[in-house]
Amino acid sequence: MTYQANNQASSATNFGSYLRHLRLQARLNQRDLAIAVGYSESQISRLEQNQRLPDLSALRARFLPALQLEEESDVAAQLLQLACDARQPNQEPATELGLPLTPGANILPIPTGLAVPTPLTSLINRGQELLSIDTLLEQSSTRLLTLIGPPGIGKTRLSLQIASAMRQRFRDGAWFVPLAPVRDPALVLPTIAQTLGLPRLDDQALAAALHTRHMLLILDNFEQVVDAAPRIAELLRMAPELTILVTSRAALQINGEQQFPVPPLELPDPEVQLRPDTIAHYPAIRLFVERMRAVRPHFELTDENAASVVDICTRLDGIPLAIELAAARGKLFTPQILLDRLCGPDGTTTLQFLVDGPRDLPDHQRTLRSAIDWSYDLLTDDARTIFAHMAVFAGGMMIDAIQAICAIPQPAIEEALAALANQSLVTIAERNGQMRFHLLETMREYGQEKLSSAGILAAIQQRHAEYYVTLVQSAAPYLRGERQEEWLNQLETEQNNLRTALSWWIEHDLTIALECAVQLRAFWFARGYFNEGRAWLSRMIGHPAFESIATNTRAAALCTAGYLAYHQGDHPQAESLSNASLVLWRALQHPLGIAQALINLGGISFLQADYPRAIVIYEECLATFRTYHDPHGIAQSLRALAHIAKDQGELAQAAKLHHESLNYYQQVGDIRGVCSAQINLSIVSYWLGDYPQARKLVEAALPTLHVAKDLMGIAYALDQIGMIDYKQGKYRSAQATLNEGLLLFRKLGDQIGVALTLTDLGRVLFACGDNHQAWKLHHEGLTLALKLSDKRRAAFCLEGLATTAGDQDPQLAARLFGAASALRHEIGTPLPPSEQSEYMRDLAHAQAACSAEVWAREWAIGIELPLSELV
User: How far apart (Å, rounded) are the C-alpha atoms in residues 720 and 740?
Assistant: First the structure.
């Protein structure tokens, strides 16, 4: 459709008023027209006020289409004629703004203040980026600075803030050149000239005009005209006082270019408590809240909506455009409903939901999909294919993995990845000495849409799942040997991909999912992912198809689930799962499987202080493992027997068994096993009262545990170091170290470790004079120990409570000491030598506070009273 001027317009006598009439006739505001023709809004305003000379070539090439006029129409002819009249034949075009065509001429200042559009919204917390860019532009060596980033990251908004802040530093001001409408690289320099109010000049004439100009040029949206980069380089060479700031999804890749990757807005750390006061200062959250208030003025962060707001901003990768588009929907939806809409019942729907941005934005920024389309359309066919295939990965990928699912030669993949990185669609980071490629979550959704529309999403997801189950199978033999750290690190790096693969196999082949989970047992244990491992196995064991799976696969899965449950102190579940596994292994007459199930059950008997049964179980396991030459099983059985010997006061035998276990771990290169043996030998030395040797052993293990990221090992080492400090009177250090260990045990869900540390921390706080807090810790430890049926730990807690009560309630102290004595006699665990003198001192202190008759009576009550009633 074309617009024709009405009769009222035919009387227009100047170009500016006629242009304004045609713009209104086309239902455009000044900003709309400016975007369409590549001008600034202020330039359109100056044209309509006849303060700027019209460019005839620009009128024909861009204004007529934008105004929906056919060049042959009378209206177009009248507009062009008025433009010609405005440009009087005797006027010197190059002096319109005082810009000379030859270097060295006298220069009039270029007007500032109208050259840079004024944003209508505030810039949220980009202080660090602004400071870094300011520092770069202050350096004389920085003539060309490119702000690079993915769609919607806020490059344009940042550049406008820079221009506004810095234009006074440049004698001839800062000028903003919008290149979004320009697709022909040959039009870049003419567009610069037009922005500056110059006529259409060739490259050399433009360079001559800018030769002595001290100005900042901002070239916005350069990615689609990147082939014009050499002409920008030449312009910089010819205009030595010119500085250019470029915003682009792709680098210009010319000499002298300084690149500045624009990061997403900072998001709350996953460990941060999701309360309004702890998250409100994060830039992504601040942006969401401010934009929500634009449509809902009374919106506030609350305890109820804080988690939803964080999830929204995290799901949107901290991308400003995405957050603004989401918040714009806040007029209709609460944060929780917004989050539900973004997730969708069948997967993410971010791209469908985030539409209809502000009308004064360019088209490619009004929806998140169009912002990504803008970059995707600039890719080669190979790059598009690889980008879409990369969308099935989660949390990054290696180039080998990309090749495995793309079936494209590696050289072509490398070239495509370089193009994707250059367009800011892919980010690259080094991890564990290897380069990994990442897609933002919004990019992943876009890529998966492309695969789905091509009808190949399911096939590519299967290739992905097959690749990662092969990785787990390759890693399994090495997770307890000399290369265990290498493989554990690789599995940790690929954890998000492993999760995606496990989900796929659960839906498509439960046997493979179960086998994969069993092979991941050592990884989940080594890196402390007990909750996750148990959750996966619970989901698989509860699957309707589980009972139809082969017996050996079910037995191994049940045993693995029991093993993880035992190490979290969930002994009823551990016993149930391990017994179910044992029944299946016995039916199969599988000795090693039987031994692994028995190891779990022996641990439960040990913790319940049923030492005779535990010894029988562990000795049967040890014989089996020796028969089948399983060094790990041998080491594990020896360690378990050493624990029993230690608890029964046979410290020399415990040390002998731990040394033998250490030798087996060293033979197979299991560094975690070695560290565990060192900590156990440290505990034996501690119980013997040899604190220097105890410290030497545990401190030898700690650095290796940190390198290995063995959180459970670190937690037990911290408890041991804390108690050594306590014994040496270093109470403040002991308290800090034990608190650190307690936090780790709680994070891991290791209830045995939590009960241990609560008891030890209670002793330290009592020594510091904080009886109230010491009582609370011992009581919490006792409650947990009884829940775990850990009678030995319960005895320690009772003694701690008795000591704490000694001053204020000696009768209660007597009753508690009596209960602890009866419990130790029942389970056969005497106090270790290192604890006896302290115990006798505390006992005597409490006993002196009441008569012998009262003491004897209360002691007897403590012996007879059931523990549940006493608690």
Answer: 12
pLDDT of residue 766: 92
CA distance 208 to 206: 5
Q: Which helix (H) or strand (E) holds 705?
A: helix 691-708
β-pairing verdict for 257-261 and 144-148: parallel
- State the Cα–Cα distance between residues 75 and 64, nearest whole angstrom: 10
Three-class SS of 817-861: HHHHHHHHHHHCCCCCHHHHHHHHHHHHHHHCCCCHHHHHHHHHH
Low-confidence residues of the chain, pLDDT below 70? 1-13, 87-125, 199-201, 270-273, 331, 344-371, 374, 432-433
**Cβ neighbours around 363 below 10 Å, total:** 15
Residue among 750, 785, 733, 305 at smallest CA distance from 567:
750
**What single DSSP character describes residue 483?**
T
| Confidence (pLDDT) at 432 | 66
Alpha carbon 354 to its chain centroid, in Å, reads 22
| CA–CA separation, 353 and 368 (whole Å) | 9
Q: What's the token pair of residue 359? A: 């009308």
Determine the distance from the C-alpha atom of residue 338 to the mean position of all C-alpha atoms in its chain, rounded to a whole number. Answer: 21
Helix, strand, or coil (residue 787): helix
Decide: 868 and 824 in contact? Cβ < 8 Å.
Answer: no
Nearest in space to 786 (alpha carbons), one of 566, 576, 609, 578: 609
* Interacting residues of 142 by C-beta distance below 8 A, sequence separation 6+: 136, 243, 258
Name 505's Cβ contacts closer than 8 Å, sequence gap at least 6.
Answer: 465, 469, 512, 513, 516
Per the CB < 8 A criterion, the answer to whether 85 and 95 are in contact is: no
Cα separation, 329 vs 326, whole angstroms: 5
Give this prediction's pTM: 0.64
Rounded Cα distance, 681 and 697, in Å:
7
Burial 204-242 (b: 16+ CB within 10 A, else e): ebbbbbbbbbbbbbbbbbbbbbbebbebbbebbebbeeb
- Whether 660 contacts 625, CB under 8 Å: no
- Write down the pLDDT at residue 12: 58
Distance of CA 546 to the CA centre of its chain: 34
Report phi then psi at 18, rounded to 5.
Answer: -70, -40
Q: What is the pLDDT of residue 760?
A: 94
Rounded Cα gap, residues 151 and 192, in angstroms: 24
Give the C-alpha separation, 441 to 347, whole Å: 12
The Cα 228–Cα 499 span in angstroms is: 44
Helix (H, G, I), strand (E, B), or coil: what is residue 162?
helix
**CA–CA gap between residue 236 and residue 403 (Å, rounded):** 41
Cα separation, 777 vs 356, in Å, equals 56
Identify the three-state secondary structure at position 792.
Answer: helix
Tokens of 793: 């730990």
**What pLDDT does residue 319 have?**
82
User: Tokens 């939806």 — which residue?
Assistant: 333
Task: Please tell me the distance from the alpha carbon of residue 486 to that of residue 477, in angstroms, as a whole number.
Answer: 12
pLDDT of residue 859: 92
- Residues whose CB is less than 8 angstroms from the CB of residue 343 and which lie 6 or more positions away in sequence, other chains included: 315, 349
Token pair in block for residue 36: 């369409």
3-class SS of residue 248: strand
| Strands (DSSP E) found in 153-285 | 174-178, 215-220, 242-248, 257-261
Beta strands 174-178 and 434-438 are unpaired
Residues 862, 867: Cα–Cα separation, whole Å: 9
Give the per-residue pLDDT at 121. 57
Strands 174-178 and 144-148, by their bridges, are unpaired
